[in-house]
């Protein structure tokens, strides 16, 4: 998967300003907090969460100075026709509320995400849902692959080993690295680490289609 393939096909027609991007990301963050609040509170606690988010959104809509100093993590990018390209990836996009709030680094041959996951990603009690374990590992391995391999590559095979539950509510390091490149094939591996413990491991194969080689 490439970044351009995760961009919305139904792109908004008009260019947007950096403040518009910041507002979109601010609204996405409010949606994430609402999702956590809806699942994790009820009664007056839930009302308080909703009220706080509605107030903050109204303030930001009414006066862009409310967002002063809030820089968009993904500032606007435009295609050749001047249409804004919206990064919609459900793992990486800061304006997609489904995506967790990841911080991404790449260093040498290693990609790393850091993230603390809230309640809406829960599978077993206090632990990350196994599907999200796979999806996060897939994305970090793919990021490592795209640094090392020329052209577009797609996940062909992905094997996950669930060593122990991946905790919610504490910082995780999600790491991927390339192990071998053989022509169109790139093999990668990685892990999710909480504290000092490796909770899950992944290895996989990415292939660049014949047409793009
Ligand atoms: C709750 C949330 C739910 C979450 C759920 C968890 C989701 C987890 C995340 C999921 C992921 C999400 C991420 C996403 O969303 S990425 C999108 C998901 N992935 C795809 O859609 C990819 C679909 N597949 C394809 O399009 C094609 O298969 C591609 C393009 C990849 C390759 O097509 P192509 O026709 O070009 O390839 P080929 O068949 O000629 O093969 C090329 C060469 O490779 C060799 N080869 C092949 N296989 C193996 C192998 N196993 N071990 C060793 N070698 C192998 C093969 O023999 C050949 O060698 P050679 O003959 O050239 O020597």
TrEMBL record:
Which BP terms in the Gene Ontology apply to this protein?
fatty acid metabolic process
| Keyword Cell membrane appears in the UniProt entry | yes
Q: Which UniProt keywords apply?
A: Apoptosis, Cell membrane, Cell projection, Cytoplasm, Fatty acid metabolism, Hydrolase, Lipid metabolism, Membrane, Transit peptide
Q: What name has this protein been given in UniProt?
A: Acyl-coenzyme A thioesterase THEM4
MF terms in GO: hydrolase activity
Q: Which GO terms describe its cellular component?
A: cytoplasm; membrane
Protein family according to the UniProt entry: Belongs to the THEM4/THEM5 thioesterase family.
Catalytic activity as recorded in UniProt:
hexadecanoyl-CoA + H2O = hexadecanoate + CoA + H(+); tetradecanoyl-CoA + H2O = tetradecanoate + CoA + H(+); (5Z,8Z,11Z,14Z)-eicosatetraenoyl-CoA + H2O = (5Z,8Z,11Z,14Z)-eicosatetraenoate + CoA + H(+); dodecanoyl-CoA + H2O = dodecanoate + CoA + H(+)
- Give the InterPro entries listed for this entry: HotDog_dom_sf, THEM4/THEM5_acyl-CoA_thioest, Thioestr_dom
Report any Pfam family annotated for this entry.
Answer: 4HBT
Record domain Thioesterase: where = 127-196
The protein's location, in the record's own words, is: Cell projection, Ruffle membrane; Cytoplasm; Membrane
Membrane topology reported for the UniProt record? Peripheral membrane protein
In short, the EC number is: 3.1.2.2
């Amino acid at each position: 998967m490439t970044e351009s393939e995760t961009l919305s096909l139904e792109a908004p027609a008009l260019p947007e300003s950096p403040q518009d991007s910041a507002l979109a990301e601010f609204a996405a963050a409010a949606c994430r907090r609402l999702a956590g609040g809806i699942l994790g509170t009820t009664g007056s606690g839930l009302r308080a969460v909703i009220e706080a988010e509605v107030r903050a959104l109204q303030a930001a809509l009414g006066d862009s100075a409310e967002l002063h100093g809030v820089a968009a993590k993904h500032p606007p990018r435009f295609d050749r026709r001047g249409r804004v390209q919206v990064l919609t990836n459900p793992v990486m996009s800061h304006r997609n509320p489904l995506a967790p709030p990841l911080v991404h680094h790449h260093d040498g041959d290693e990609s790393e995400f850091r993230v603390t996951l809230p309640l809406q990603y829960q599978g077993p009690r206090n632990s990350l849902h196994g599907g999200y374990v796979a999806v996060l590992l897939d994305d970090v391995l793919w990021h490592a692959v795209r640094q090392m391999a020329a052209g577009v590559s797609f996940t062909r095979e992905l094997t996950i080993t669930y060593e122990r539950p991946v905790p919610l509510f504490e910082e995780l390091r999600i790491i991927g690295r390339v192990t071998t490149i053989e022509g169109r094939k790139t093999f990668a591996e990685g892990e999710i680490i909480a504290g000092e413990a490796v909770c899950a491991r992944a290895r996989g194969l990415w292939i660049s289609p014949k047409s793009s080689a």
